[in-house]
């Protein structure tokens, strides 16, 4: 049986349209932290991440110094990986430089008409859209945003709806 926290996330949040620069930045950061780990690990630590990263306020995280990186490396409530922490700070700085904002940039890659996957085997790890989004983010200086991570972001914030046919959450 799936963890109740994971079920609630699946049923109520994953795949639902999410906009707003800080909100999208949070998901970009969390997807990067998830790389190589279970999503449930990140989900269980999400509130700790939010507290540690000033609720993912882009201007606040962009202003972080080496002292903040060291503080985060000492925080047992989050994933303590220097490269991922430094990427989050870097990505906040890159997001500040986007003329149209992070949310607007990411949502240009929405695929609302993608067909519903029939089974989990039909859910891709990457798509041409996720490859293009990753390339665009990297062009703007983002790190830890490869095509697979970009696709996980697209799924999480509703750029695509990968709830399989018949899933109760597909039509909500």
Could you tell me the strand content as a percent range?
Answer: under 5%
Query: Which range best describes the helical content: under 10%, 10-25%, 25-40%, 40-55%, 55-70% or over 70%?
Result: 40-55%
User: Could you report the average pLDDT, rounded to the nearest whole number?
Assistant: 94
Describe the sheet with the most strands.
none
Model regions low in confidence, pLDDT < 50 over at least 5 residues: none
Judged by helices, strands and strand pairing, the structural class is mainly alpha
Q: How many beta strands in the DSSP annotation?
A: 0
Over the alpha carbons, how many angstroms does the gyration radius reach? 16 Å
Report the principal-axis shape: globular
Give helix and strand order, one letter per element, not per position: HHHHHHHHH
Number of discrete helical segments: 9
Give the N-to-C terminal Cα separation: 22 Å
